[in-house]
């Protein structure tokens, strides 16, 4: 049956939608052009925010590497990883998931994220998505971060708490704001669900989101978790925005 369906509906590239050959069921498929435009973060990267760093071949997986921004900006979380750079095909896939009504892409993208986040996993860790405000959730019909965090938690055998964090107020978009403006925009907007306080007491938490730019959202989310009594917080994002070369 699956073979017949693949003949009728051949696998499509997640980046451009063109048919691709040789993709097993459940595998992530990219055409050659989109593959070349996808920057996977597999070499040297900042151990705090996941941004790729200049690589001489010796720094992959080294948590001691820290980017200039993380040396300058206080990060309340401990460690971070990202699967790919928010550019080219990576950017198109994130936007399709987030704004293009493509939740079907989430399991494939989550598989990339689960691999990238593997070094962060520890026994007893809780996985939680960055939440959307109810108004935005009603408009979009799903939280793209939760679609990524669920499969990640299952793949790593961790507890998934999609309602761990809440947004107490609707915030305007973060685009075109500097770091100070982004931080101020989110002030007091994120909180821990009171019903989940006991579930995170002293436990490590892995925060999941689709994209990290300045890190303002993760900062407020991590601060809320730590203030509520969680253990150390780590962050994992599908895509990491980088400064222009």
UniProtKB/TrEMBL annotation:
Short name of one Pfam family: DZR_2
Signal peptide: none
Start and end residues of each Phosphoribosyltransferase domain: 191-240
Organism domain of life: Bacteria
Membrane-crossing segments per the record: none
Coiled-coil intervals: none
All copies of domain Double zinc ribbon, residue ranges: 4-71
Family stated for the protein in its record: Belongs to the ComF/GntX family.
Protein name: ComF family protein
């Amino acid at each position: 049956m699956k073979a017949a369906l693949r003949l009728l509906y051949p696998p499509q590239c997640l980046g451009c939608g063109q048919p691709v050959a040789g993709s097993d069921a459940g595998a992530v498929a990219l055409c050659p052009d989109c593959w070349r435009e996808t920057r996977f973060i597999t070499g040297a990267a900042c151990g705090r925010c996941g941004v790729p760093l200049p690589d001489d071949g010796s720094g992959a997986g080294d948590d001691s590497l820290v980017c200039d921004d993380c040396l300058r900006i206080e990060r309340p979380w401990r460690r971070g990883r990202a699967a790919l750079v928010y550019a080219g095909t990576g950017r198109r896939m994130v936007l399709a998931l987030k704004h293009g009504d493509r939740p079907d892409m989430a399991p494939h993208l989550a598989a990339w994220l689960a691999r990238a986040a593997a070094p962060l996993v520890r026994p007893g860790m809780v996985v939680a998505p960055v939440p959307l405000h109810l108004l935005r959730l009603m408009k979009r019909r799903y939280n793209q971060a939760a679609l990524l965090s669920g499969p990640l938690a299952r793949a790593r055998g961790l507890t998934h708490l999609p309602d761990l964090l809440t947004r107490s107020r609707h915030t305007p978009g973060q685009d075109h704001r500097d770091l100070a403006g982004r931080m101020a925009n989110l002030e007091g907007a994120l909180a821990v669900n009171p019903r989940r306080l006991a579930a995170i007491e002293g436990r490590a938490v892995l925060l999941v989101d689709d994209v990290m730019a300045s890190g303002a959202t993760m900062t407020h989310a991590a601060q809320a978790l730590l203030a509520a009594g969680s253990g150390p917080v780590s962050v994992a994002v599908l895509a990491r925005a980088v400064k222009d070369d």
